[in-house]
Write a structure and sequence with these properties.
single chain, mainly alpha, Serum Albumin, Chain A, Domain 1, 7 helices
Length: about 130
């Protein structure tokens, strides 16, 4: 679940960077996180709020661990509980992000979709070992 959330987070970081605001995040990361994940249907409003807080904390600390990104001990503990919660459907998180992206794209005349495949190449190289493409 953590790997999926991190990948999803960085996917929206790139979209935000390229088309939404002209910067990595809006000046208020909680506003960005609410816009991106606020409609997540996670079965309990407290889970959605935790997702927004976690995304906001991670946005404030891009490249940092959850421990270093957390505002305080309670937010760090809440982040780990969120990630380990088997009742949270990662597809619902993705759906909320996709929905927010689709809504934002509709408001734009032109949207560039740029894909960075370096991580894909890296993972393929790890699986294949030393090969001609790596």
């Amino acid at each position: 679940m953590l790997e999926y959330f991190v990948a999803l987070f960085y996917q929206y970081d790139l979209i935000d960077f390229l088309s939404w605001t002209g910067s990595v995040f809006e000046s208020n990361t909680e506003k960005w996180a609410n816009k991106t994940f606020g409609k997540a249907e996670l079965g309990d409003k407290r889970r959605a709020k935790r997702l927004i807080n976690l995304a906001s904390d991670m946005a404030d600390g891009v490249g940092k661990s959850i421990v270093k990104s957390g505002r305080d001990a309670a937010s760090i503990e809440g982040a780990y509980q969120f990630i380990e919660n088997e009742l949270i459907d990662h597809n619902a998180i993705a759906h909320a992000g996709f929905q927010a992206t689709a809504e934002e794209v509709k408001r734009r005349r032109l949207v560039l979709t740029i894909e960075d495949i370096t991580s894909l190449i890296h993972s393929v190289c790890n699986e294949l070992g030393n090969s001609i493409i790596c």
